[in-house]
UniProtKB/TrEMBL annotation:
It catalyses: 4 Fe(II)-[cytochrome c] + O2 + 8 H(+)(in) = 4 Fe(III)-[cytochrome c] + 2 H2O + 4 H(+)(out). It is found in: Cell membrane. This is cytochrome-c oxidase. InterPro entries: Cyt_c/ubiquinol_Oxase_su3 (IPR024791), Cyt_c_oxidase-like_su3 (IPR000298), Cyt_c_oxidase_su3-like_sf (IPR035973), Cyt_c_oxidase_su3_a-hlx (IPR013833). Residues 1-178 form the Heme-copper oxidase subunit III family profile domain. It is a multi-pass membrane protein.
Amino acid sequence: MFFAGLFAMYFTLRGEASAEWATYTPLLKVPLALLNTCVLVASSFTAQAGVLAAERYQRRRTGPLWNLRGWGMHEWFILTYIMGSLFITGQVFEYAGLVHEGLTISSSPYGSVFYLTTGFHGLHVIGGLIAMLFVLGRSFAAKKFGPVEATTAIVVSYYWHFVDVVWIALFLIIYGLK
């Protein structure tokens, strides 16, 4: 519901201040945002691979590191964490470029809605990263990897997939809708 409110704010301001969108959308780095989106979407696949390993109660890899089929939940969730961190890094890089161009949260209605929608999404991604650390820590601390640990991994993956789907909608609206 929170993101529905942000989408409503975006479309309302877009309708009321359409000249702002014509001025500021050319500043967006669509190739960077597309790359960032691909990283986040790919991280959903790695999170799901971690869930499949957790459902087999496979905490760690079996075999060499390069054998992805032998990876356990730890390896997949660590890779997902790295990819989520890369997504946040990409957002920070994009924000720095936009601020350098003069687009800030207080510079215009477009800046306000852009930073609020993408920033709150970024906070949700950070929350997902913290949850993954929690899952990994709980898994490392458990004497036996069982249903409780697997369920925790599954629940965190649902959240991660939700964050991914919200970003796809944000990307299509902010970067794709002209």
